[in-house]
Write a structure and sequence with these properties.
Layout: H1 9-25, H2 31-38, E1 39-47, E2 53-54, H3 55-69, E3 70-82, E4 87-97, E5 106-115, E6 123-129, H4 133-142
Parallel strand pairs: 1-6
Antiparallel strand pairs: 1-2, 3-4, 4-5, 5-6
Length: about 140
């Protein structure tokens, strides 16, 4: 296994701007535009221990279902490491489930690996490492209300 090649200062700054734009898009009401803007057509989403999703259609469907049960999602980026072929992100995600009368925040720590070369505009794969159990439990409680 070889180590990733460090990116240049300019590539790091451009990639960090891309990451900010990517996360701004996660709260977009136009999920289709967000996915097609940031994912390659045959891109892959690996979310926690769920089966891999491939291509725009499957990924759009996943996020549409997620948005349907959530009032809000907020991603606080704590740290970003940029290499020539991938980006590592440490973050804290805050979710609020629809129909929760108290609008309690569910906070989950996550690590994300974005497989995107610094000279490309679209990612080929997104790997999200987190434990979604607290969120899934809350969704079960309020999804039918």
């Amino acid at each position: 296994m070889s180590l990733p090649v460090p990116a240049t200062t300019e590539q790091i700054e451009a990639t960090r701007a891309w990451v900010r734009d990517f996360y701004n898009g996660t709260n977009s009401s136009d999920i289709t535009n967000w996915i097609t803007q940031f994912y390659q057509p045959n891109g892959v989403l690996n979310f926690a221990n769920s089966p891999s999703l491939k291509g725009h259609e499957e990924i759009i469907s996943f996020f549409e279902k997620q948005h349907a049960v959530l009032s809000s999602i907020k991603h606080d980026i704590l740290h970003v490491d940029v290499f020539s072929d991938r980006i590592y992100i440490q973050q804290t995600d805050t979710y609020i489930v629809k129909n929760d009368p108290e609008q309690n925040e569910i906070i989950i720590k996550a690590v994300v690996v974005i497989w995107k070369k610094v000279d490309e505009n679209n990612l080929s794969s997104l790997d999200v490492y987190l434990d979604p159990t607290p969120l899934k439990e809350k969704i079960k409680i309020f999804a039918s209300k």
